[in-house]
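Researcher: I'm comparing several assemblies side by side, and this is the next one on my list. It has 811 residues spread over two chains. Same procedure as the others: predict the full complex and return the structure.
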Amino acid sequence: MRQLKLLALIVLCGAAVPVAAQQRDDKALAKLEQARLANPSSVAANRSLGIWYYKQNRYAEARTALDAARRLDPKDGVSALYAGMAAEAMEDYTGAKDAYNSYLQVGKTRSVRNDISKRLVALSRKELHAAAKSAIANESRIAQQPGDVNQVAVMPMTFSGTDQTLAPLGRGMTDLLIGDLARSSQVQLLERDRIQAIVDELALSQAGKTDATSSVRAGKLVRAGRVVQGAITQTGSRNLTVNAAVMNVASSQQQGRDVTASDVLDQIFAMEKNIALGLFDQLGVRLSAADRTALEQRPTRSLQAFLAYSNGLVASDNGNYDDAAKFFDQARTIDPGFAQALQKAQSARAAQQGSAVTNAKVESGLKGGSEGAAVAATSTTGIGSTLANAVGDINPSAANNVNTSTGGSQGGAPPPTRDATGEKTGTDQPAAKTGTVTITIKRP
Amino acid sequence: MCLTRFALPVLLLAAASGSALAQGLGDVTLAAIPQYVSIKIGTGASAKTVSQFSMPLVAVVPIGSRFNIDVATAYANSDVSTNGKSASSINGLTDTQVRANWTLGNDAAVITIGVNVPTGQYKIPEGNAEAAGQIGNDFLIFPTSSYGSGLSTTGGLALARSLGTWNLGIAGSFRKSTAFDAFQAKNGSTLETLTFTPADEMRARVGIDRAIGDGRLSFGVTYSSFGSDQYLSHSYATGDRFIGQATLYVPVAGTDVYVSGWSLYRAKGEQLGGVSNPETVSDGSVALGLHVGNVLVEPSVEGRFWQVDGVKAGALGNFGGRLRFSTGSLTILPGFTYQIGKLYDTANSGVSTDVTGWRTSLMVRLK
């Protein structure tokens, strides 16, 4: 019976805790709202309210309050940081990037700035895919707005053949073509990542449907005036044929004729140059002598390095940054002069590290600094620090010192525990003492 | 045995770090806090110098959002020398504290459980007893104040709630201690082990705090009540302790300002050979946090006063500075403090001894 009563008491206590927490949340919100109403131009009041909403997963309300704090004080890094996290939670990656970039400018906590820098790299892919989804959702409206004819989108090249280890060459060839076509100032090439995101969202590459209709559709979604589509076909064990064509997005018609190059696999870089030159003709671009000289430059002459690089692009497009970094490193190992591989490896590594930066890690990084103190002082009611102080004093440990805030001199805290033996024997007294101590040990 | 004592804290720290790695280092904090303190008491040939090198090692491992475990231990080398000659010294690992905290509700309560694992120094020979004891002084305050206090467990509960603009925190804990072999002393030709059993301790704490703009003001009082220590088959009453604390943090025009004070009162108790008079240690400090590029520069001034049975026993001024900067996931806090003061003879008014010292530290935190 007694045990039953105890059990009932425990259950009641367990039920009471969430109820009490809910009541306190309501009170905290009322208090924070009241504080902002009393002083709407207070950065601290707006920031506190915003952080409270953020911690309650009420992101839209959090952004409203945090953006108000940012307008009042553009140098308030904490507001920018939380605004970024709230925007990211709402999948507004452009807003998140803007807020995070503000934090990089004005934020005071270096470790958090490092984390945010890496996170921004990882955020780019999310942003591109979110933009692609949004474009597809608004396709009927976007399709009515013709893109600039000078805006050119190069679609990912498809690969068909028996040796599927060569399939990544499609991504690599696309990357090279974009680089070469961009050498002319008469056309503006859209970023490969952006086009890939649209293609992925349309699931074109998986289905292999890069026909004229689907390419034009993708071109409309990225607001391109013209698109380049192409295919690599393996012919025989060591031979390739590369085809490419320019499509006019507005008319949905091919512009000019097909461009084709065929050769052995080892001549892939020469084939790419021929295709690039052919595409310039179809795009109506007349190259200067300087442009032609620049076009001869090759990022690498190693097929194996290029294949590893292409594999890296595929892994990166799929969000597998760890694999991507390894492939780019491999390309760099095979050809140490492959500068693009180094750049992509660094980017993939940063994206990988950025993916591992959780909100909890960012918030944890603030602790112990002045920005952490600002969060503790203003977020909700600071009840967490009230509890932490209480626990630190009733069950002290050296771990208390690790997360202490800044300030206070060394040794500026009271001794957390007594040295019982020193106290009892008097050996803890600094001044010399003299005397005689007689210890009597009774005979048993 | 010695190997086991060394291996245990290493294993506990490794287990904590291993758990850290398993969930990704992002949520975990590891820290090493090497410190060196040297305090000279008196002048001339009779001057006594108490010095200590201490290297606390800490791992804090959150497991989910509501539970965390921390493990802390230290290596310390303490020495008492007179006229430049070492008179007593002790070195080795200290005990290891393992603590688990479980948060209930939305920061409504925390259940805390701690175990003091006896990995430190025990059976301290007579010649090392002075060095082991001097570091426990509540006025001078050394980074490591004890090498070993036996196996003990602490259980506690902390509650917090808002009352208007203030937060109220109430907490209580109970520590159950067990006997340990404190000293070894010669009794004639035989070596005797002297067993010590620390009194059980009950602690209670009440604290209040509130936001002040972007800053915070807090007050707290901690009360500790003890039973009797058992030593050499005798019971010795231990005076209760009160600690009052107040802290204010407020940013002013881009500079962080910290003002803090604390006072420790220990009531009358008993000790070997007589009475342990009541004593009070009071401390006040002011520190600034100046943001210079990516470095936080923290100059500080601190004053400390000691009274025994209502009579002035010591005064100490600390003048120091600390830097704080981060590189990658590392936060580094090098610091230096110069100390100057006096110890007063409580029996002979007007007789005093000069005290000078310095302390330096380098906290390295990986988060």
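Model: For your comparison table: Residues 1-149 of chain B form one domain.
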